[in-house]
Amino acid sequence: MKILKGNIIFTENPEAFTTYPRGYVVVKDGKVEYVGSTLPQIYEGEPVEDFGENLIIPGLIDLHFHAPQYANIGLGLDKELLPWLTDYTFPEEAKYKDLAYAEGVYRQVARELWKNGTTRVVLLSTLHIEATKLLMDIFNESGLGAYIGKVNMDRNSPDILIETTEDSLRETEALLESYGNKYERVKPILTPRFVPTCTSELMHGLGKLAEKYQVPIQSHISENRGECSWVKELHPESSSYADVYRNHNLMTSRTVMAHCVHNTPDELEIFKENGVFAAHCPNANYNLSSGIMPVRAFMEAGIHVGLGTDVGAGNKVSISSVMASAMQGSKMKWLETEGALAPLSTPEAFYLGTKGGGAFFGKVGSFETGYEFDALVIDDSALCITPGRSLEERLQRFIYVGDDRHITHRYVSGDLISEPKLK
To answer: Residue 336 is inside which H or E element, if any?
Structure first.
């Protein structure tokens, strides 16, 4: 059992923060057993770790991160999506056939996520199965929670980075067999890169594997106008981009689709009907001139929404920076729609980066009873230049101007996670 004391703040719902100034959270078997302003008598005599005036918040959740593209972070961001993929992404990912190279980058990824307060992440690897296994091993060693996917791509890809349909499905199933239950916190996820690089045969095969092994799915959708037009050319039989995925049994309650910038109202219905998660990646969308996701429309439709850094199209590993970008972009969308789509509030943005995205992992991202205790302790004393600020204001300031230097402790399922080792 662990008992922590401090300034506790989280979001049970998107509308408002729940706060317990100098409150207590009791953790048993890795889960929250109690949270409140006073410590119940039944816990009298138990040791309490007192974090003083520090904030205690849920760990941050990243629903979309390309692990190999960390090596490209900050590069090529004057391009649009498709040229950027050709000039930067594909050449970099081809290098991950070399396991020594892959290990060097992937250990940095684990450390950077830990440093920036991400406690759970949905990662794309490359099409290389051995490098994907290595990434899963590294993340298991780190103590962070992760879904990790071997990328599938059997068409419209460079010769240095393409596989046959048969090899793609065979190696993916082998990964599910060997790593499906190998680790407690690190699990495989099916990863068709996106429709243009996956044949119908491959997507149908992945849909069958998802059903057979009951595993989640991740991919991209409607990131860029040129990409959307390309999908229409490739699949004239489908009514929309989302319909392509649905027709291949890839739109499920365990699917997360990144970007969602240019989806139609009919596609939002497909998301809602199938329980699909949307990963909002504002930094990447701004960098590659893709546009601004109408996140309010997704939320009003009752669709699950979380946040993603989308490194390396996104230039920050920090989900708190993504929260700030999401709020900024929503204000531009509010203006663009002449007030039809209201901007995000601070509690809403924080919810998306914690409980909203955490729902993809189960009961994660909140301090409600029964939730996994993923948490950060924030010493924001260097940021609080004036006294008397509320907990809500202090958290808002951390979101906008704080960074990893202010995070003192990181917990996943109740375990204190130390800094992952580099190679």
So the answer is: helix 319-336
